[in-house]
Amino acid sequence: MKDYYSILEIEPSASLPEIKQAYRKLVMLYHPDKNNDDPYALARFAEIKEAYEVLTNPQKKELYLQERWLYKASGKKIGEELITAPAILIKCLELNKQVATMDIHRMNYKAVAERMTKLLNDDTISILIDQKETDVHASIIASMLKSIQPFPYTAAKPVANQLFKLAVHLPEWNKHIFQSMQKKQQQEKWRWLNPLLIVLLTIAICFLIWYNAHF
């Protein structure tokens, strides 16, 4: 169940003026017009708007509080993760920012890839596809592709396999994933071939020098 109070960064005891004040503060931070339509800001703004609309509407708020009480009474934790396309997108974008700060020469690609495949496991993908929010799915795929950009082919492949599943109804993105992986595969081949070519070229140069010196 979503914790609308946490989303607005306020206490459950917050008054209506405090809710409105918190909303205005967060809108100033995450409004799409102020963030050049940044995907993370878009996803956060959608959550903030949803929370505000519920907590400022007496009928919706009353229903939410009843559901919240029943949820807590059943022993469940408020704010427990719900699998929704915007929520997954936010996690993908947060992960993307973390990857961007990592040293690509020291990064544990396998560990990061495992985090990504765990986030986009088969059950989650099935739920996302059922929700049919294809625009958000496209943003998730774009974010993941950006995250695995520095990955070698072998580390990126498990993530790409999950992205292919999510892109089942997005042929253009299916094509993007395929092209991205094809490019990685070619780069990996060249990475293995380059040292061999350098050795062969060195041998050829040495032979030419020896040949010119003796004939």
TrEMBL record:
<dbReference type="InterPro" id="IPR036869">
    <property type="entry name" value="J_dom_sf"/>
</dbReference>
<feature type="transmembrane region" description="Helical">
    <location>
        <begin position="192"/>
        <end position="213"/>
    </location>
</feature>
<keyword id="KW-0143">Chaperone</keyword>
<feature type="domain" description="J">
    <location>
        <begin position="3"/>
        <end position="75"/>
    </location>
</feature>
<protein>
    <submittedName>
        <fullName>J domain-containing protein</fullName>
    </submittedName>
</protein>
<keyword id="KW-0472">Membrane</keyword>
<dbReference type="InterPro" id="IPR018253">
    <property type="entry name" value="DnaJ_domain_CS"/>
</dbReference>
<keyword id="KW-1133">Transmembrane helix</keyword>
<dbReference type="Pfam" id="PF00226">
    <property type="entry name" value="DnaJ"/>
</dbReference>
<dbReference type="InterPro" id="IPR051948">
    <property type="entry name" value="Hsp70_co-chaperone_J-domain"/>
</dbReference>
<dbReference type="GO" id="GO:0051787">
    <property type="term" value="F:misfolded protein binding"/>
</dbReference>
<dbReference type="GO" id="GO:0036503">
    <property type="term" value="P:ERAD pathway"/>
</dbReference>
<keyword id="KW-0812">Transmembrane</keyword>
<dbReference type="InterPro" id="IPR001623">
    <property type="entry name" value="DnaJ_domain"/>
</dbReference>
<dbReference type="GO" id="GO:0051087">
    <property type="term" value="F:protein-folding chaperone binding"/>
</dbReference>
